[in-house]
Design a protein that fits this description.
- By secondary structure, the protein is of the alpha/beta class.
- The chain folds into three domains: 27-125, 2-Layer Sandwich (Chitobiase, domain 2); 131-438, Glycosidases (TIM Barrel, Alpha-Beta Barrel), CATH 3.20.20; 472-518 and 555-666, Alpha-glucuronidase, C-terminal domain (Alpha-d-glucuronidase, C-terminal Domain), CATH 3.90.1330.10.
- Helices cover 35% and strands 11% of the residues.
- The chain has helices spanning 46-58, 72-76, 98-113, 165-176, 196-209, 224-227, 239-255, 281-292, 313-321, 382-389, 419-430, 436-447, 452-473, 505-509, 533-539, 550-553, 568-592, 599-631, 646-650; strands at 7-9, 39-41, 64-68, 82-87, 90-95, 122-125, 131-135, 181-183, 215-220, 261-264, 298-302, 332-337, 361-366, 399-403, 515-516, 556-557.
- The strands form three sheets. An eight-stranded parallel barrel has the order 7-8-9-10-11-12-13-14.
- Strand 13 (361-366), helix 10 (382-389) and strand 14 (399-403) form a beta-alpha-beta unit.
- Helix 11 (419-430) crosses helix 12 and helix 12 (436-447) crosses helix 13 (452-473).
- The longest helix is centred in the last third of the chain and has 33 residues, at 599-631.
- It binds beta-D-glucopyranuronic acid.
- The site of beta-D-glucopyranuronic acid has 10 residues, from loops.
């Protein structure tokens, strides 16, 4: 409701204080103004107060008005959309909601930070997806599964009594890029998450996040009724089980009226689920959805499943979920990883997208770099996510999730440049049409400096970075040839007694004397047939298949002639070399950047680029030396001779637990 009194708010900005350049300010490095512009609004609410506070402290232009508008233009922009317009020197931010006004505020401040002309604005914005969530894989003990930026941000042992100021900073950063939901805990969920004691802590976080427009969600363990509720079963068709969840949902909503809902990993990698009781994923999801529905909550049910079977792992999620199309309730969204296997440096899109027309689907991206060099390597991921959208129309998706790369490190993400992936995830979740390059530029401008001498070369580095990682780790469609357990270094030779074959690299690369790659054509595992006919015609053909996926879909002879005219072996060598060259080049470019960057962030990033460059050599040598035992071919000219021997590299073992920054010293010296 609009208040009738006009509140003219004039707040003077705080004095500029100097602070350590530890990366903690992310992209939100606005200069504080000494005398603030007039910020006018009739609305007095926590969210609008935040917007007014930001503008009063940081907006350098003239008067700004914030207004709620329910006319048809604003109505068509939805509950979070907004307009920004300037007339006679006054900038007007309008939206049907207060949240929209906060988003408009951050948009305006972003334009200012990037040096845009803000004197004549006429902007309309509407997010592509209603639900834009981060998935934290944080455990109750403070560790983070696949987290490389320290411990969990959530200090459960202190909550609810101590509320760290970082919670509000986290929420502010998310709001500034349009993220509107956060799943607080690991998909491998502890049942204790739903204990009454814990829910009070969750409420404390929800209260901090609410004014920033962020809803809280929880990952739940499907067996919670047994483990927490003392029931004999978690069978979704058992009345007592359904009742337990209903009562639990009521308890949650009493504490957190705008609670978002549940994320569920069921019958996957040892997690309990409805299939334990011979029920389907749909029956399990719907039972939870029924408990949440009266409160407006949703269930995000993950399709990341693969059962031990002889069938190609890349086919399994589709085989299990596609037959369930149309059986899910309307407050269930099936959450599908972008590719059919598991967040590899490059995968084709998962064939489930497009195959379940009567089911709401959402995509799950991984922002944390589990398979892309952790927080040691720069891999700017916007191009990877855009690649996904080149196959899948955003309009066919209900929501988008990103597995967070955030921990309690002072710079949030471990690698200062990895903040760009958090940023890009949010920007693309709001608008998948944005160009990766534009996002990189605006992030660099806000996070470091708008000086072109810095922004231009570093934009190039960022834009090349993911492709470089693909080149030196797994070019041409290779995948999952990581070392056992930590997914950091190469181990294409890995063998573990008793391990599932589809957890081992040989399953995926299929190297033999004839060639390399997994035959997923109609003559092989036939995974290709899960795609629409038009795509099958391309992926199934050795001639037509894009080379970036060739070893994903084909077992290719070593001497096969590639588009470049080289043999497969030579092309493979060339790609690994290109990756190594790029990684070395990144370190060199960064050296030139020292005049533009504060010394703290300069040296932190330098250190990481050095690791990346030496890791790239490690990857190249390990993979090429190993694959050469099959191809029996020589390195072509232009490709560096190996620095390390296979024998040396087979001895490299990284500590799996709690390492944050494995360095080049872990590699053997050339004489070892
Ligand atoms: C894999 C991770 C594992 C996760 C799993 C998942 O290695 O730690 O639990 O995905 O997404 O990528 O459930």
């Amino acid at each position: 409701m609009l208040k009738s009194v006009l509140l003219a708010l004039l707040i003077c900005g705080a004095a500029v204080t100097s602070r350590a350049e530890d990366g903690s300010r992310l992209w939100l490095r606005y200069d504080t103004v000494s005398s603030s512009a007039k910020i006018e609004t009739r609305i007095d609410s926590p969210t609008v107060r935040l917007a007014v506070g930001e503008l009063s402290s940081f907006w350098k232009g003239g008067k700004v008005e914030l207004q709620l508008m329910a006319d048809s233009r604003h109505y068509s922009l939805g509950n979070e959309g907004y307009t920004i317009s300037t007339r006679n020197g006054v900038t007007t931010l309008s939206s049907v909601s207060e949240k929209g006004l906060l988003y408009a505020t951050y948009h305006l401040l972003r334009l200012q930070s990037c040096g845009a002309d803000c004197s004549n604005l006429d902007i309309s914005e509407k997010p592509a997806f209603d639900i834009r969530v981060l998935n934290h894989w944080d455990n109750p003990d403070g560790t983070i599964e696949r987290g490389y930026a320290g411990q969990s941000l959530w200090k459960w042992e202190e909550l609810p009594a101590v509320v760290s100021p970082r919670y509000a900073e986290y929420a502010r950063a998310n709001a500034s890029i349009g993220i509107n939901g956060t799943v607080l805990n690991n998909v491998n969920a502890s049942p204790d998450v739903l204990s009454s004691d814990n829910l009070i802590k969750v409420k404390a976080l929800a209260d901090v996040f609410r004014p920033y427009g962020i809803k809280v969600y929880l990952s739940v363990n499907f067996a919670s009724p047994i483990k927490l509720g003392g029931l004999a079963t978690a069978d979704p068709l058992d009345g007592k089980v359904a009742e337990w969840w209903k009562v639990k949902a009521d308890e949650i909503y009493t504490l957190i009226p705008d609670f978002g809902g549940f994320l569920v990993k069921a019958n996957s990698e040892g997690q309990p689920g409805p299939c334990d009781y011979h029920r389907t994923h749909a029956e399990g999801a719907n039972m939870l959805a029924a408990a949440l529905k009266p409160h407006g909550g949703i269930v995000m049910w993950r399709a990341f499943v693969y059962s031990p079977s002889d069938d190609d792992r890349a086919k399994q999620a589709y085989l299990e979920f596609r037959p369930l199309d149309g059986q899910f309730m309307d407050n269930v969204i099936v959450q599908v990883k972008n590719g059919p296997i598991d967040f590899q440096p490059r995968e084709p899109y998962s064939p489930l997208f497009g195959a379940m027309p009567h089911t709401q689907l959402m995509v799950e991206f991984q922002v944390t770099q589990e398979y892309l060099g952790h927080s040691n390597h720069l891999a700017y991921l916007a191009p990877m996510w855009k690649e996904f959208y080149s196959y899948i129309a955003p309009a066919d998706l209900k929501a988008v999730a990103g597995v967070a790369n955030i921990g309690d490190n002072i710079n949030w993400c471990g690698h200062d440049l990895a903040q760009s992936n958090w940023y890009a995830f949010g920007r693309l979740a709001w608008n998948p049409e944005l160009a990766s390059r534009d996002i990189a530029e605006e992030w660099l401008e806000q996070t470091f400096t708008a000086d072109k001498e810095f922004v231009s070369p570093m934009t190039e580095v960022m834009m090349e970075s993911r492709e470089a990682v693909v080149d030196y780790m797994m070019p041409l469609g290779l995948h999952h040839i990581f070392a056992w357990g930590h997914h950091y270094g190469p181990e294409p030779w890995c063998e573990i007694d008793g391990a599932r074959p589809d957890w081992l690299p040989k399953y995926y690369h299929q190297a033999d004397a004839d060639g390399l790659g997994f035959d997923r054509t109609e003559n092989g595992s036939d995974a290709v047939s899960q795609y629409p006919d038009s795509i099958v015609a391309v992926f199934n053909s050795l001639e037509k298949c894009p080379e970036e996926f060739i070893l994903w879909f084909h077992h290719v002879p070593w001497k096969h002639k590639m588009a470049s005219g080289r043999t497969l072996w030579d092309e493979l060598c060339f790609r690994y070399q290109r990756g190594v060259d790029s990684a070395k080049h990144f370190a060199e470019v960064w050296e030139e950047m020292s005049p533009y960057v504060d010394s703290e962030r300069y040296s932190a990033v330098s250190h990481r680029f050095d690791i990346q460059a030496s890791d790239a050599v490690w990857w190249k040598d390990a993979c090429l030396e190993y694959f050469r035992t099959f191809s029996r071919m020589k390195y072509p000219s232009g490709v560096d001779k190996p620095v390390f021997s296979l024998k040396q590299l087979k001895k490299v073992k990284l500590p799996i637990d709690n390492y944050t920054c494995p360095s080049a010293d872990m590699l053997p010296s050339a004489n070892d």
